[in-house]
Amino acid sequence: MSVGCIPRQKTEAVQTVYEGEERWEEVVEGSEDAFFVSRKWAGVGVGVFDGVGGWGESGVDSGEFSWNMSRKTKEAFERRGGGMTPTKALEEAYEGVQRDRGVAGGTTACVGQICSGTGRLLVTNLGDSGCSVYRDGRLFFASKTQTHFFNAPFQLSKVPDSLRKKEKSYLQNKVRDADEYNMYMKHGDLVVFATDGVLDNLFFKKIENIVTETLVEAKIWVKQGKEIVPTKEKITKEQLLSGMDISRQLVTSAKKVASDTEIDTPFAQEAKKHNYYYKGGKPDDAVALILLVLEMAHVAILPPPILFYVRESN
Q: What's the sign of the alpha-carbon dihedral 210, 213, 216, 222?
């Protein structure tokens, strides 16, 4: 498990924190993209949240809103563990944020839960963040994007009292509007949860290539003729650490594309579908959280979760 995170005003994700994911929020500053990892039960709960930047035009800090949603969703998982689903956790978090008088704004959400015993993956996605699964060298699954119109994602939001009095409408969805997914993971599957800072800039084929090249180089996946399959050998800690570099590569690649004004991107293609002219990448915060699914019989030792975060400019 690892997370790569780059706020839009920074340039690269290079430093590494191995332990203490409870403090990750303190490490990552200035990002409207939030994330969490919950491991205090027989499984893993994860989530990525993208504070919708448009709220800033009304003087609302959506970064604070997304991090509050992230914290409360994590707390919901840790209160009830395996008895909690991503949808229920989001509902509890959203209800909690509604009661918090000091928080307002809007956020997308992609929350997942995987059971260690069965390999069952549940995903709840609302908006234009997303989850994708890579199996045997190929894209196996990708959640659908939810938007009201171009560049206006479904979002969980809370309008502050100061804005309610104005005659203006705001985009507001409920957790029930989210898409739910249910599938079983296999040994060797790689799961990516990412915000639109990644997905607007990297085509799934590019993500697939990064995943495949990294896992093959780490010898977690191996080539058998024309096929790629998980290794049957014992996987070492060093191999796992090499594989976890995928999250750093994803956000770094997305950041590079975002600054290219000539390259073709998913965001540019989506703009064209809606009769807008747009060329190049889309500057944004970027978060990629990855889970590598392994049968314990194939693992020598598990490293702690890794965070790749931004290096401060000199």
A: positive
